[in-house]
TrEMBL record:
Belongs to the multicopper oxidase family. The lineage of its organism: Eukaryota, Viridiplantae, Streptophyta, Embryophyta, Tracheophyta. This is Laccase. Pfam families: Cu-oxidase (PF00394), Cu-oxidase_2 (PF07731), Cu-oxidase_3 (PF07732). GO terms for molecular function: copper ion binding; hydroquinone:oxygen oxidoreductase activity.
Length: 565
């Protein structure tokens, strides 16, 4: 049947309107040394444009973002745009040796990509070693011009970036840990927008404050930029209404505590409905690994009501560090906002079924040396008993695009090579299972394939929670639970109507999560634990998504200034 001719002018008008509502937003990042004073110490850190955190980038959905990065630091550098789909712009995703070679000191690179089909809070950070401890910032995506939030417009909004601080050079901390084979030193403090808060020494003037007007409602955009810790977050005497996670809208969920894993974002509405006064914002770790050392300090900020006369803030009661029931209640009660902006239903036809174990491992110390890890070996980590090793001669994406062999192997297993009682603590140091070989093993996917993954934690070395991040895609979280995943009984728990949508999932301690996504973006997409201590140990793999059948589903060539190895 012929299409009515009168629809053509309307379609052209709609297209012109859509194009006219999108802008090009341009920034320059100058990355270099910065001297700051925290916790009674002066430290030289790596920072962007002389600030910690770095600049907040604000765009609208549909805008094209162009960021010129000038590396004036002494370290190799890349920038990852955490949670951005990077549709047909995988050369700008940023993880070192996955999609690009690093920007060497004294060199530059321009990241350019369009924000498509996303609204809310994301963030950007360095993706080389531990540099993201101080090289990070918020990426705020507002609705396209003429579109509204799916909630009443707040009076004002504030980015809240939760960070982690060492009284040492973080690159040295990481390198010393890798050299010893043991755990790196834990952090000395947590921070809110770069400030530790007045519970720490010499920090009375280093406390972030938010000024509010009684009766008004505010949007807080919370980012967990900490390297190695999930965090409990509370505001004294105030409820919070969660309205989005990982830049995906949720059904409003009222809570007095937010739990947030490294890499995740949570948008909340805060109504200033208490009496005039000052109220502490507080965050401290959710530490799920029994017996493991962690930074047990608390960072604070202050909500100050306009007209308040009392200067002594009230303090919230934070959950116990190991309060898994509270963490699980928060994570499992979130649901998506069906038919909200950019909502997509769960794909029901599945092309690829994967069962992926994640956990710590060991690697031989080498020679006759004794390392600081368990059994005198060095710490490692793996997915399906493959401990990921990044290439150094060429990025995986370049090797994929140009057909270069010898950089990676497309043999990442769909299931662990050996089945065992995954979460039984008796296997903690089982020598027949705990050593994982090193490889650059990836999983190839057909364009538009629907992938379902069971993410199963293991009890190797320690039973703990692992935040798993997938670059380039959002995924539906169908279910999550504790113990070993049971395909017969646990599939009955799947939410196929309105599951939460994320890019980073905190797989429960000693438990599992089932996720599903559509591989509609050709390129190389890293899958890894977002605890920075685990990435260099090898808790990672990558999806290599093949090109589709049309030019609109084919990865274009790299930009001319792509860094060389």
């Amino acid at each position: 049947m012929a299409r009515p001719v009168f629809l053509l002018p309307f379609a052209l008008l709609l297209l012109a309107s859509t194009m006219a509502s999108a802008d090009v937003v341009e920034h320059s990042f100058h990355v270099q040394n910065l001297t700051v004073r925290r916790l009674c110490h002066e430290r030289v850190i790596t920072a962007v444009n002389g600030s910690l955190p770095g600049p907040t980038i604000r765009v609208r959905e549909g805008d094209t973002l162009v960021v010129h990065v000038f590396n004036k630091s002494p370290y190799n550098l890349t920038i990852h745009w955490h949670g951005v789909f990077q549709l047909l712009s995988g050369w700008s995703d940023g993880p070192e040796y996955a999609t690009q070679c690093p920007i060497r000191p004294g060199h530059s690179y321009t990241y350019k990509f369009t924000i498509t089909g996303q609204e809310g809070t994301l963030w950007w950070h360095a993706h080389v070693q531990w540099l993201r401890a101080t090289v990070h910032g918020a990426l705020i995506i507002r609705p396209r011009a003429g579109h509204k939030y799916p909630f009443p417009k707040p009076h004002k909004e504030f980015p809240i970036i939760l960070g982690e601080w060492w009284n040492a050079n973080v690159i040295d901390v990481e390198n010393e840990g890798l050299a010893s084979g043991g755990n790196p030193n834990i952090s000395d403090a947590f921070t809110i927008n770069g400030q530790p808060g007045d519970l720490y020494p010499c920090s009375q003037k280093h406390t972030h404050k938010i000024k509010v007007v009684q009766g008004k409602t505010y949007l807080l955009r919370i980012v967990n930029a900490a390297l190695n810790n999930q965090l409990f977050f509370k505001i004294a005497k105030h409820k919070m209404k969660v309205i989005a996670v990982d830049a995906s809208y949720t059904e409003p969920y009222v809570t007095d505590v937010v739990v947030i894993a490294p890499g995740q974002t949570t948008d909340i509405l805060l109504t200033a409905d208490q009496s005039l006064g000052s109220y502490y914002i507080a965050a401290h770790p959710y530490a799920s690994a029994a017996g493991a050392a962690f930074d047990n300090t608390t960072t604070t900020g202050i909500v100050v009501y306009d007209g308040a006369t009392s200067s002594t803030p009230e303090m919230p009661v934070l959950p116990a560090f190991n309060d898994t029931p509270t963490a699980h209640k928060f994570f499992s009660n979130l649901t998506a906002l069906p038919n909200g902006p950019h909502w997509t239903p769960v794909p029901l036809h599945i092309d690829e079924h994967m069962f992926v174990t994640s956990g710590l491992a060991l690697s031989p110390c080498g020679g006759n040396a004794t390392c600081s890890g368990p059994l005198g070996q060095q710490f490692s980590a793996s997915m399906n008993n493959a401990s990921f090793q990044f290439p150094t001669k060429l990025s995986i994406l370049q090797a994929f695009f140009y057909g270069v062999s010898g950089i990676y192997t497309a043999d990442f297993p769909d299931h662990p090579p050996v089945k065992f009682d995954y979460t039984n603590s008796n296997i903690s140091l089982d020598r027949s299972l705990i050593f994982a070989p090193k490889s650059t093993s990836v999983k190839k996917l057909k364009y538009n394939a629907t992938v379902e993954i069971v993410l199963q934690n293991t009890a190797f070395v320690a039973v703990e929670n692992h935040p798993i991040h997938i670059h380039g895609f959002n995924f539906h979280v169908l279910a999550q639970g504790f113990g070993n995943y049971n395909a017969t009984t646990d599939r009955k728990k799947f939410n196929l109507e309105n599951p939460q949508v994320r890019n980073t999932i905190g797989v429960p301690v000693g438990g599992w999560a089932v996720i599903r996504f559509q591989a509609n973006n050709p390129g190389v997409w890293l899958v890894h634990c977002h605890l920075d201590v685990h990435l260099p140990w090898g808790l990672a793999t990558a999806f290599v998504v093949e090109n589709g059948p049309t030019p609109e589903s084919t990865l274009p060539p790299p930009p001319a200034d792509l860094p060389v190895c």
